[in-house]
Amino acid sequence: MPDIIAETERLILRTIDEGDAETQDRLLNTPTVMARLGGVKELHEIEAKHAKSMALYARERFSFLFMIEKETGEMVGHCGIKRVDNPLANNVGDHEIGWLVREDRWRRGYAEEAMRAVLNWAFGPVDAPYVVALTSKPNVGSWKLMEKLGMVRRENLDFEDPSYPPEDQLVIQYSLTRQQWQECKL
User: Which of 3, 100, 122, 164 is the one with CA 20 to 30 A from 133?
Assistant: First the structure.
């Protein structure tokens, strides 16, 4: 049974559970949604990420979560906290936040709503001193949300990842400290 981590006005954020990979594959693993995230994944890759997320939650009490729309009970995205695990990054192990919303729910504010709850979780029970978020320059919607959340561009953390297409090879990072988050909320 998944744990409910947070509730917002329109969403329930719950832990990933056994059997959720097929739902994610069906609703989120589309060419459009995955365009800036390395492309569509094989089901076994999603299952491996879910296993990693569940193990992280068991070990550290944070992970990625499913965003469940209260009105319909449908999964509309995922979001959460993990550790930076790209070996090309010079900040491996930092608390990394992220999100993904299915295409038919874009431009409804779900990502911002969910990420505000995730940041409260990160700076509350998780007790992270700061968080980072990774994206690419062409992923304008992603870094615009980072800025809206009060995150600051950290060019010193940029790195190239040749596993992404050429236009997305420069991975850019933003960060947010607990103090910055508290000041944003005032």
Answer: 3
